[in-house]
Specification:
It contains 17 helices and 21 strands. By secondary structure, the protein is of the alpha+beta class. The strands form five sheets. It has a seven-stranded antiparallel beta sheet with strand order 3-2-4-1-10-9-11. α5 (127-142) packs across α6. The longest helix is centred in the C-terminal third of the chain and has 21 residues, at 485-505. The chain is globular.
Length: 506
């Protein structure tokens, strides 16, 4: 998962870009980057780390210009090398810069096409660089003059949609011209755009989530539609066109469960309200299936599950309490490589408040259960804090299948619910009982009754049904080889070896 942002303004955009990346930091904590355009010059700063660590005053002063794009990353493909931090740049045509959120499911075939047919060389293992070169090649093919024309951009994006498969939301900058944003024909990954009025005229912004626009004073216009391209020029113009023949709005439902900030609006759905409805639905299921329950208190696993847990407590008529204090300087655990690091991280990240547990039958509520590592550790902490019984509820259904559209969930064999019953998962995490959300209830909770324009949701992590229709057993096997902990540790060890070798040579 990644966060993208692009701004076309009349004055310097470096501060607004930085502020947007800080707001989107939850979407990627491994690397950050900004490219700005000052006339014909491009200024770049990117590196591994949080945005606050990548950019200091010296870097910000050098990021001059009134057009720019930014990116926060965690890797779903390729390595975690700083060389793969985004945005990426290609010189021909025009000098194009791109930042991308998502994953191309046909990246391997595209990379071979680019080398053999398009005569373009890919320097990294990132599919974002592949997407950039596909767009650049197609724009070069359709452009008949040195002048940048909107119809050529739309034709290039149309060809991108014909060649690329998977989920992708991208922001592109062409120096001295403006910013282009486009979204895959299924609208899997989110992206919005907005405007603000200034004394010098209108300014534009595109971002992964609406909250980035809010903090910078931009008014949300709308989401970019599936298959649509939006061109925002330095002259203050907006051009839009749907560039795919067949589209179906199928946003990733896991955005609403976990990834998106609660104060964001995605595809005209308020994330906070969706999570509140999840809690209500889960409470209704608990009443049906645990009618004789003896729960004394509902406690959320901070932070994402708070809204659902509070809604659930209200619907059940049971007290709600904050039982864990969270250290906000520890990264998300299911993204971390290796079980040892992951287990250690849970204890560093959360600490129980004993008084909320002692002698009580507690219901712990989390947004989802992925590996089960975190859940098991949290159940143990609740017991150590004095809980009499520990029940566990997940606001999402069992996660049984890998995500292929830009969320770096583990290999299928590392998903605790894959091939297991609810009772078996309950035994593994050590709870007295476990309740999952029903998939139909989750869909209804996220879908706005009678108002939503969503055709369907991508629920592949729960159902195993991939909306793009091109994901087969061979691709999933390839994904398995790339994503398991052993493969990740091997790649990281190789990168460390390269660093040591270069140091010795120096």
């Amino acid at each position: 998962m990644c966060g993208i942002v692009g701004i076309v303004a009349h004055d310097a955009v470096n501060q607004d870009l930085y502020d947007a990346l800080m707001v989107l930091q939850h979407r990627g904590q491994d690397a950050a980057g900004i490219v700005t355009c000052e006339g014909e010059k491009l200024h770049l700063r990117k590196d591994n780390g949080l945005a606050r660590d990548v950019f200091d005053t010296q870097h910000m002063l050098k990021l001059r210009g009134n057009i720019g794009i930014g990116h926060v990353r965690y890797p779903t493909a390729g390595s975690s090398s700083s060389a793969e931090a985004q945005p990426f740049y290609v010189n021909s045509p025009y000098g194009i810069v791109l930042a991308h959120n998502g994953n191309l499911t046909n990246a391997k075939a595209l990379k071979e096409e680019l080398f053999r047919t398009d005569r373009r060389h890919i320097n990294t293992s990132s599919d974002s660089e592949i997407l950039l070169n596909v767009f650049a090649h197609e724009l070069q093919e359709v452009s008949q003059t040195l002048e940048i024309r909107e119809q050529d951009i739309f034709k290039a994006v149309e060809r991108v949609h014909q060649r690329c498969r998977g989920g992708y939301a991208a922001v592109v900058m062409i120096p001295n011209y403006g910013v282009i944003a486009f979204r895959d024909p299924h609208g899997i990954r989110p992206v919005v755009f907005g405007e603000r009025d200034t004394a010098d005229g209108k300014e534009f912004m595109v971002a992964s989530e609406s909250v980035a626009l809010d903090t910078a004073g931009f008014e949300l216009i709308r989401d970019i539609a599936p298959g649509e391209a939006v061109v925002l020029t330095a002259k203050g113009e907006i051009f839009t066109q749907v560039c795919a023949e067949q589209t179906m709005k199928s946003p990733c439902i896991f955005e609403f469960v976990y990834f998106a900030r609660p104060d964001s609006v995605i595809d005209d759905i308020f994330v906070h309200k969706a999570r509140r409805r999840m809690g209500k639905r889960l409470a209704e299921r608990l009443k049906r299936e645990w009618s004789g329950h003896d729960i004394d208190v509902v406690i959320p696993i901070p932070d994402t599950s708070r809204t659902a847990a509070l809604s659930m407590a209200r619907a059940l008529g049971i007290p709600y309490a904050e039982g864990f204090i969270k250290n906000r300087y520890i990264g998300r655990t299911f993204i971390m490589p290796g079980q040892k690091a992951r287990k250690k991280s849970v204890r560093q990240k959360l600490n129980p408040i004993d008084v909320e547990f002692k002698g009580k039958n507690v219901l712990l509520v989390d947004d989802s259960i992925v590996r089960g590592t975190t859940s098991k550790q949290i159940v143990e902490m609740a017991r150590e804090a004095g809980a009499n019984k520990v029940y566990f509820a997940s606001a999402a259904p069992p996660v049984r299948y890998p995500n292929v559209y830009g969320i770096d969930m583990p290999s299928v064999q590392e998903l605790v619910a894959h091939g297991r019953t609810t009772e078996q998962v309950c035994e593994i995490i050590g709870a007295d009982a476990l309740l999952y959300q029903d998939l139909g209830d989750l869909i209804e909770a996220v879908q706005k009754k009678g108002k939503s324009l969503v055709d369907r949701f991508d629920t592949s992590v729960f159902s195993g049904e991939y909306v793009t229709g091109d994901v087969d057993a061979d691709y999933l096997d390839h994904l398995e080889d790339q994503r398991n902990d052993g493969a990740k540790q091997k790649r990281e060890a190789g990168q460390l070896g390269n660093i040591i070798e270069l140091h010795n040579e120096a």
